[in-house]
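[Structure tokenization] protein backbone as discrete codes
[Encoding] learned vocabulary of local backbone shapes
[Protein] chain in single-letter code, fold in tokens
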Amino acid sequence: MSAADASPADLPECPMAESGDRLLPDELRAWMLLLAATGAVEQRLRSVVKETLDVSHDEFLILCLLAERPRSGLRMTQVADLLGRPKTRLTYQIACLQRAGLVSRRSVCGDKRGVEVVLTDRAREQLRETSVLLAGTVRKALADSMGAEQRAALCALVPDLDDS
């Protein structure tokens, strides 16, 4: 089995520098670990999202943003800003989602150039049906990609996280 075929749990632990020998402060080190964990989640989610919702990962992120708005939508500019995506790319992704019947666009009242995007009932139903599977995929990817030291580093970044 090659290193590319191995799951993170099968790979040897990365040697950790002694705390006095570390070049990076704890916050930056934890941020890098968080980015690695996020990458692992995104990699696993890509295929599951494609199989269950038949959308790309980026389109799924748009659906998730809109799902947090009970019945109101978001302006296209807000979606682009929140996802850090170019507006031209977002326009294409929204068009794909609209063709799939998952979002609708409408003009913003009082602003003839403003466009708001809203989830359709069909999208809400599909997200309801798949959310448990998708959440389980996230949990599994995090569990597989993070060891005890990585979890401790992330908890150190936000120490009061487990107090709530």
